[in-house]
Model the fold of this input.
Amino acid sequence: MDFKKIIEKLTQEKKTISTMESCTGGGVANAITNIEGASEILKFSAVTYSNEYKIKMGVNRKTIDSFSVYSIEVAQEMAYNISKFANSNYGVGITGKLNRADINNNFGEDNEVFISIYDKDNNTYTNDSIKVYERNRELNKKIVIDRIISKIQELIINKSIKKTNQ
Done:
């Protein structure tokens, strides 16, 4: 699965997307920019590996303290704030742990990743989480990125199919 259809659809609809990634380390932005035409739709991408930079990009410290940095609530704030920062139609927020306990953030399950896609035009979130168990961190990232691509495709491509059929 790749971003080609997503990029084509976003370009056709004159819509844009931005990402705020943590555990995927920019992998989603990389997957997008591997496709010709990505510059038309990708507004901005941030890798916010630390709590400090999630907060600087708009995530509320109280949300991190209340739910842990590894939570759907933080992923939602990441998605919303990156969309707002870049003025993009869609914002993608990703946070979680891959193959390693985090001494700075003792909460949250190991190998669980939280994904949120914010749709600014409808003020809605599409949320998901995934557990990954591969020993290889790079393979876990690929599994998570594939899941994100699938979720974005469901949201963007399938949404327009539903509108057409109504």
